Amino acid sequence: MNLEEFLPPALDLLAIRSTADRPADLHRALDLVLDLVGPGFTVERFDSGGKPSALLHAGERRPFRVLLNAHLDVVPGADAQFTPRREGDRLYARGAQDMKLSALVLARVFRELGRDLPIALQLVTDEEVGGYHGTGHQLDRGVTADFVVIGEHSALRVVHESRGMVTARLHATGLAAHSAYPWLGDNALLKVTRAVDAVVRRYPVPAEEAWRTTVNVARIGTANEALNQVPADAEAWLDVRFPAGDTDFDGRSPEQVAAHLAAVSGVEVEVARVEPPHRADPANPDVVALQEAARAQGFSGELLRKHGAADSRFYYGRGIDAVIFGVGGDGQHGPDEHADLTTVVPYHRALTGFLSRL
Length: 358
Description:
Distance between the termini: 21 Å
Radius of gyration: 23 Å
CATH topology of the largest domain: Aminopeptidase
Number of helices: 9
Structural class: alpha+beta
CATH superfamily of the largest domain: Zn peptidases
CATH architecture of the largest domain: 3-Layer(aba) Sandwich
Number of strands: 17
Largest sheet: 6 strands, mixed
Helix content: 25-40%
Oligomer: single chain
């Protein structure tokens, strides 16, 4: 693959403001990539929650040997970020690193190999807002595979594990009273503070990066507005991140997690979401082969763990090994997001080498 020939369609894709609130641009981004792949493939289109997606393959749908997954949506950015600019080996734009360049490489590799190999290309447009209407929706409709490569940025390293997420609220009820007579009341803020302390003692904040369950206390508040009143209600917001294998959270329903946190905290708990973690077996021959393909291009191919969530969690929940493997760059979701152009051609070669071994 020639980088200079690859860049013009990449610039066109990066210029599309494909954020969740712009459905027409989500369709434009999807259609651009479908046009790049070209004719000769079966294209299954999906639409869920106003978010379009597509599955491309040769012939009838079946359990694919390898599924290539890419999302074409981006988070909001400044106007200037949708006018891509190149500075040496860096390409600056919203979505350059996360993950439009990787998506185009996956599309190109599929175009070159998809007619001869049992692979498929999955294009979605809602990863940045949860993935339920893209990857999640397609899997609910029976799409499956033996192994999945997700083109999120990794600088040709192999992300085999990421943490799950719980969003919860602790609720405490007390008794209002005049603040001059606190013994006549029951301070709900003190209750919820003690509850938060109990949760943080169970899951302490690490002093440095650690692969274990962590809790972020995002907010503590009350409806009380009077300085001279004992608060009768209070709540705290918690963001819990947990690795695969943590039996307090992994594989648990929202009701089970709420009961667990209530037992720890001693107050009422409401759990809004439980998102599963993701883990692929490092000994899986496909994981090993992908590492070898990266090393053949002069990269380490080392295994990585990511603390954030990705669409890989949908596959983990169905017993399918999925890894994240993409181009390099920096500044994800920030004002200086950029892709490292020196990784684009090696990424194409590594994917081609990996898939050719099938």
